[in-house]
Amino acid sequence: MRAVWKLIILFFCTQTLLAQDSYKVIAWKPIPDASGYEIQVREKSGNIILDKKIDKPFYSIEDLPSGEYQVRTAPLNLFKKPAVWSVWKDLEIIVSEPPTVVVEEKEPTIIIPRDKMVGGTNLNKVTDVAITGDNFLEVTEIEIKQKNDKLPILQKDVKSEQRIDLKVDTTKAKPGDYDLTVTNPYQKPKLVSKFIKIEGDKQSEPTENKTKTSLPKGKTFKDYTYNEMMAFLESNVAENCKKTQVPAMMLGECNLTYVTLNLSSEDNKQVFYFYKLISKNESDRTTAYSHFSKHCPPKFKAAEERMEKVWKERGNLSPEERYILSTNLQKLRTCSE
After folding, report:
1. pLDDT 10s digits, 23-33
2. Omega prior to 99 cis, within 30 of 0
């Protein structure tokens, strides 16, 4: 257990939706591996009026009379002894409200694909999950589970009252829908059904591009399907410039230490941004998302298909990329010729 830690003191006044009851609560940032906590409250004179050992990083002090107080806490070790006391802090008053969560309509907020499987084990052991909404606190409790199976939360980072970032262990996660529960102290839990979907093992599903796609005749690039565009890129290799994987049609010069691009035509630009769209680099992909939504109409069919596919399997994306993809994909969906 760490000997140095940051104490955040909160003083809550809460109200339920059914009554005008208020709850005075002292809360602080949870300490990893703590076996509980000890809390002490004293008057300005130094007289300690509360000394209590508790299990969670918050405590109701409903009966505390009005006045000026200071508080300190300590995480407990395995022997239920204080490991290290915080410094005395003045109580800070805030309002605790029921948490809210923003969710996608008609589909899970996050879909985690199971396309990297070895012997039934998901190689994507840690999945980033972003929860957006309002009224989030350091002591907000998060639970993600399917019936009695909980997904282990390895890290919780409260970015603001509107966002919490999680790192979730999905190594042994079973396929199916998982519910999210968000709870603030002394408030009714917020339940979001089917917040996460983990897909089944794709080894038993039809494999994409089982049959080789032939290049279409008489089609413009903007009308190519995703599979047709991928077939084109595979066939358009710069044979005389082995130092790059850039398609031959957009290659300008191939020099000893660098290459130049030929983006003089609209077709070359569109193919170039599709090439970025399928890149393993997040920055390339997000640039391509913005390009195809901005330059529409005309709609580039292959790009839309690719972005829809990435969105469906967005569990592997960072929260930032999910937001950029969602914004630009919505523009592309509503773009009319």
Report:
1. 667 888 888 88
2. no
Residue 28 exposure: Cα atoms within 13 Å on the Cβ side: 29
Q: How far, in Å, are 209, 222, 236, 279, 292 from residue 245 at the CA level?
A: 21, 22, 10, 11, 22
What type of residue sits at position 131?
Answer: I
Q: How do residues 90-135 score in pLDDT, each as one tens digit?
A: 876 556 788 899 876 556 666 676 544 444 444 457 888 889 999 8
* Per-residue tokens: 299: 């709609």
Contact 215, 230 (CB under 8 A): no
Name the burial class of residue 258, with classes exposed (0-12), middle (13-18) and buried (19+) by CB atoms within 10 angstroms of its CB. exposed
Q: Torsion angle of alpha carbons 62, 83, 158, 28, nearest 10°? A: 20
**CA gap 149, 180 in Å, rounded:** 12
CB 193 within 8 A of CB 178: no
Residue 163 has what DSSP assignment?
Answer: E
CA dihedral 263, 268, 274, 277 (to 10 degrees): -10
> Is residue 209 packed enough to be buried (19+ CB in 10 Å), middle (13-18) or exposed (0-12)?
exposed
Cα separation, 119 vs 125, whole angstroms? 14
pTM: 0.51
Greatest Cα pair distance in the chain: 88
DSSP percent split of the chain into helix, strand, coil, nearest 5 = 20, 30, 45
For residue 105, which amino acid is it?
A: E
| Dist. CA 208–CA 201, nearest whole Å | 14
Kindly tell me if the per-residue pLDDT of 44 is higher than 80.
yes
